[in-house]
Amino acid sequence: MKTRITEMFGIEHPIIQGGMHYVGFAEMAAAVSNAGGLGIITGLTQGTPEKLANEIARCKDMTDKPFGVNLTFLPTVNAPDYPGLVKAIIDGGVKAVETAGNNPAQVLPFFKDAGVKVIHKCTSVRHSLKAQSIGCDAVSVDGFECGGHPGEDDIPNMILLPRAADELEIPFVASGGMADARSLVASLAMGAEGMNMGTRFIATQEAPVHENVKKAIVAASELDTRLVMRPLRNTERVMTNEAVERLLEKERKLGADLKFEDIIEEVAGVYPRIMSEGDMDAGAWSCGMVAGLINDIPTCKELIDGIMAEAETLIRQRLTGFLN
Ligand SMILES: Cc1cc2nc3c(=O)[nH]c(=O)nc-3n(C[C@H](O)[C@H](O)[C@H](O)COP(=O)(O)O)c2cc1C
After folding, report:
1. Within this chain, do residues 23 and 119 fall inside the same structural domain, yes or no?
2. Are residues 57 and 122 in the same domain?
3. Which of these three, 151, 185, 208, is where a domain ends?
4. With the C-alpha atoms ordered 131, 174, 156, 44, is the resulting torsion angle positive or negative?
5. Which atom of ligand 1 is nearest to the CA of 100?
């Protein structure tokens, strides 16, 4: 399949693996890229520019296909060394960057000069237009369904994607709730030129996370995610568990008085315990509603090959069939 996204990133299939905290290590990115998609290393998970440079080098040992790095701009007090991370990406010869969170304008000139293509993840049409106006090459349009941070507008992809298609000139991929060939074909129909998946890629053989995480996703239904941190305007869609229900109880009790410090135990520094050690009740971890569509743990190649083969059947047989 050829779209502006496959052309832009030099990939075989229009499928991107979104950056994921404590999941986006070299093993994950390389597996997706080797299967013909665009794998993404999560920059902030690595911690320092040196460690990111090392992860990029490890990924290059595992694949000769293009892969990218995610740079998430968080509203934190102790800002990560963004200039150092940008330098590690450019020096490492990486040609694709997925930015997310705050406006990436500060880093765009460096990436432009180095010929790095930037796809910015946005949860609204207005942010997508902003990304286009500051010079991003593409957008990942992330609907309300998504795992992680859906923003505060709560617009699902059935509305968000056609709205984005009506307004944007640069190409975009559909993100949030994407799991299979149906997701891809529907996204293409709504104007996207590919799809970005997060949660689906965690439940794969190569995802470098504890087996408990994969099993939890397979066991979960579409009813098992919750929105946390809404009162802080930092909404995150997570898998429900003991810690999340405790967190929500605090939100109900404290109402408008809730502060980040009140929920620090449930959200701060919990990812290594969950993703690496498999302690599934350690805290809140991002997960999409799409868990309800995930029933297996294939290899990335099986997953992507299956999606592409079935997408072709859907388009050539089911959709074309309706016209006769
Ligand atoms: C466990 C997990 C961690 C994530 N961490 C990040 C992150 O650090 N930066 C980021 O931009 N997006 C992050 N995301 C969002 C994904 O990149 C992607 O946009 C999202 O998962 C898409 O929705 P889906 O899960 O329904 O496919 C994370 C998602 C998950 C499930």
Report:
1. yes
2. yes
3. 208
4. negative
5. 11
Question: Pseudo-torsion of CA 16, 17, 21, 24, nearest 10°?
Answer: -110
Asked if 148 and 258 sit in the same domain, the reply is no
pLDDT value at 88 more than 90: yes
pLDDT tens-digit map of 157-172: 999 999 999 999 999 9
The predicted model scores a pTM of 0.98
19 CA distance to ligand 1 middle (Å) = 6
Residue 100's φ and ψ, nearest 5 degrees, are -160, 160
**155 and 272 co-located in one domain:** no
* DSSP line for 25-46: SHHHHHHHHHTTSBEEEEHHHH
Q: Give residue 275's domain range.
A: 221-286
Tell me: do 114 and 196 sit in the same domain. yes
Q: How confident is the model at residue 27 (pLDDT cuts 50, 70, 90)?
A: very high
Q: State whether 62 and 98 are in the same domain.
A: yes
pLDDT band with cut points at 50, 70 and 90 for residue 321? very high
Residues 96, 9: contact at Cβ < 8 Å?
yes
Write the residue with the smallest CA distance to atom 28 of ligand 1: 20
The CATH number linked to 163 is 3.20.20.70
Q: How far apart are CA 322 and CA 320, in angstroms?
A: 5
Instruction: Tell me how far the alpha carbon of residue 100 lies from the centroid of ligand 1, in angstroms.
Output: 10
In terms of domains, do 141 and 25 share one?
yes
In this structure, the strands spanning 225-228 and 236-239 are antiparallel
Distance set, CA 145 to CA 124, 171, 236, 282, 291 (Å): 13, 21, 11, 23, 10
Single-letter amino acid code for the residue at 208: P
Whether pLDDT at 218 is above 90:
yes
> Are 12 and 191 spatial neighbours (Cβ–Cβ below 8 Å)?
no
What's the gap in Å between 286 CA and the centre of ligand 1?
A: 7
Residue (of 168, 166, 167, 142) closest to 155 by Cα position: 142
